[in-house]
């Protein structure tokens, strides 16, 4: 009897974990043209999804070469192009994957600055669940689409 109670409690605690969270700060006004700073260390599908979702909102997208330097847990992107004059916003992004029974996106951050990179215009951050929380196994493509939708003033329904 005691053994079955112990196993039941152990199972209950193992299935709980920290839930996912996200924070969103919208643009005050949607940009007409964004320049996306390519992050080479992030899966290529993330860039493709970001571009297609902005384009779904009739926002022109141009990509720019960039280096993302990680220091003290934060990325400091450096643009390798000065072709930002036609951009209403510069979009940066990062995403991390972890392994736990399967590969899952544990973190994503998309943020936009003005073309001088001095003022943050919008950002969306997703932090996946931890522990034995099966809710962390989300569709990464759908989550990136949702984050882009939510930073825009009137987002499209992304089916999530």
From TrEMBL:
Residues 1-19 form the signal peptide. Keywords: Signal. It comes from the Bacteria. PROSITE patterns: PROKAR_LIPOPROTEIN. The keyword Signal applies. NCBIfam families: Sbal_3080_fam (NF040519). This is Lipoprotein.
